[in-house]
Amino acid sequence: MVTIFATAARRCVLRSGRSSLAVASRDACRSLTAHSTSTIITPDRRLVFSQQQQQQQRPFSSSGSDGDGSHSDFSPQRKEVKDDVDEAVELIKGQVKEHPVMLYMKGSPNMPMCGFSGRVVQVLKSTGADFSSVNVLDYPSIREGVKKYSDWPTVPQLYVDGEFVGGCDIIEDMYEKGELAEILKAYIEKEEEK
User: Fold this and answer.
1) What kind and span of H or E run contains 179?
2) Beta strand pairing status for 107-108 and 111-112?
3) Fewer CB within a 10 Å sphere, N or C end of the chain?
4) Up-side HSE of residue 105: CA atoms within 13 Å toward CB?
5) Could you give phi then psi for residue 135, rounded to 5 degrees?
6) Digit-coded pLDDT (tens) for 67-113
């Protein structure tokens, strides 16, 4: 294995084991790396691998791969949503019925894209509630549809057992008063009876 240190003076130093050999220019350095297994370390300490090394790297499995080396099972699953708001409202009705605690938010629970959504996620996590979410930034028709469905102008929006609970300020207020925990507990008890 040959390591090449590229210097700011447009020169390279080849190092193989303990011995070093100076090379006159970076162009000569590049031509050497094109034909050998080597690593180039640039002055800013970035590693640049030769083409030969890049060709040797492969994903674990070539079947079912989506081009970035990961299997398609690990890519985000998204339903096809058309730009029709009325169609989005029907989809929202189904989601709210299918998922007992549903949050429409900007971003995801792991990476909220607005402070209000982040605060609602923190409240839900602190209650220990298991909830589903939809990133409305990915679906503009759902973003508008959820506002029409609830007749509430802002996002995030929380639904429990198919009923609209509220936005960020209402959820935080209910949490501080203990009302949100009561709603979630009542729903859990109702489900256990079934």
Assistant:
1) helix 179-193
2) antiparallel
3) C
4) 26
5) -85, 105
6) 556 666 766 666 555 568 889 999 999 999 999 999 999 999 999 99
Tokens standing for residue 41:
């370390």
45 CB-contact burial (10 Å; exposed 0-12 / middle 13-18 / buried 19+): exposed
Residue 110 has a pLDDT of: 95
Contact call for residues 141 and 179 (beta carbons, < 8 A): no
Two tokens, residue 164: 């609209």
Average pLDDT, the chain: 75
Model confidence, pTM = 0.58
Looking only at the bridges linking them, the beta strands covering 101-105 and 111-112 are unpaired
As given in the structure block, the two tokens for residue 58 are 């492969």
Q: Do you know the residue count of the chain?
A: 194
